[in-house]
Amino acid sequence: MTDINTDINKVKIIQNVVSGLYSSTIPQKQLINLDKVSSKVRYVAIGSDHGGYEAKEILKHFLRNIGYRITDVGTYSKESVDYPDFAVKVAKKVASGECERGIMIDGAGIGSSMTCNKVKGIRAALCYNIKTIVNSREHNNANVLTLGGPLHTPDELREMVKVWLETPFAGGRHWRRINKIIALERNY
């Protein structure tokens, strides 16, 4: 069933591209890699500061158990650290293509989202419930999720991350908006 859904999503994306929804003003090298639109994510970078360490450990083990390949960029203890140091590591793993998605957890998720979004090619979304999780993927094609670890129960964290990793980008009218984000990145 997953392969059929993936094929259907790819056909929809191609139809959107052919129908002109994909801006022709963006140079070819700036176009989003359509292969990465698939909801079949395998490689995930995960990081945290000390405030998100416990949540990171819970999610790391959960994701490995359900089949994801995890790259843990730290931190590796509850000792106080600065979230930007780890948020940029997660963002760079995704921007380089080494990982398809990234998850960064700190005390509230705000600072990590701001940091990740400084890295070219990153669309980090701070999410706090299932509705924002789904929207970040379907409409914004977020490739990094930031969370406030202490703000959620372990079960909420597991559900949110699983849904985020499994939700595909809807394409269609949303391509135009993603292209505008990419264009802004080039100009500023």
UniProtKB/TrEMBL annotation:
Keywords in alphabetical order: Isomerase
SUPFAM superfamilies: Ribose/Galactose isomerase RpiB/AlsB
An example Gene Ontology molecular-function term: intramolecular oxidoreductase activity, interconverting aldoses and ketoses
Domain of life: Bacteria
Transmembrane residue ranges: none
Annotated Gene3D superfamilies: Sugar-phosphate isomerase, RpiB/LacA/LacB
InterPro entries in the record: RpiB (IPR004785), RpiB_LacA_LacB (IPR003500), RpiB_LacA_LacB_sf (IPR036569)
Coiled-coil segments: none
GO biological process: carbohydrate metabolic process
NCBIfam families to which the protein is assigned, alphabetical: PRK05571.1 (NF004051), rpiB (TIGR01120), rpiB_lacA_lacB (TIGR00689)
Cited PANTHER family: DNA DAMAGE-REPAIR_TOLERATION PROTEIN DRT102 (PTHR30345:SF0), RIBOSE-5-PHOSPHATE ISOMERASE B (PTHR30345)
UniProt similarity note: Belongs to the LacAB/RpiB family.
Protein name as catalogued: Ribose 5-phosphate isomerase B
Origin species: Candidatus Infernicultor aquiphilus
